[in-house]
Amino acid sequence: xxxxxxxxxxxxxxxxxxxxxxxxxxxxxxxxxxxxxxxxxxxxxxxxxxxxxxxxxxxxxxxxxxxxxxxxxxxxxxxxxxxxxxxxxxxxxxxxxxxxxxxxxxxxxxxxxxxxxxxxxxxxxxxxxxxxxxxxxxxxxxxxxxxxxxxxxxxxxxxxxxxxxxxxxxxxxx
Length: 174
What we know:
Elements: E1 22-25, E2 28-31, H1 48-58, H2 62-75, H3 80-95, H4 107-119, H5 123-136, H6 139-156, H7 162-173
Antiparallel strand pairs: 1-2
């Protein structure tokens, strides 16, 4: 099951280079198998709560999606898809009715621009913008900015920029 809504823009994702190329999103791994290699694949039944969440995201029903992901987390607090899903719903909700700031100058504008970068799949840019917001902020605003960047890490899962960005965030905080 994926937390990515069916209407997500996947045009910029790289095509698999081998019949079985690893696929990673939000800590979930799998393989793409060429159709001629598939005899009978017994698929694990999808969690209907995750399916409900993805359908709600597609419909812009943020609270329904968030509630479905939280149901999963109530049963399994370590479910990577559900944790990423809750964070992703927040990003999509914040970006649903606006335009990213072209030239951010405030902490809130940097975080808004970072949200749009996450929504567009540009995690490297999102991390840069979010960490800049942390560096600019103080007090509770700094804690909120840090929490937002940590949400981006959750959404990004195994993205190769996460470890370096985590180190940069730690440096920005201390």
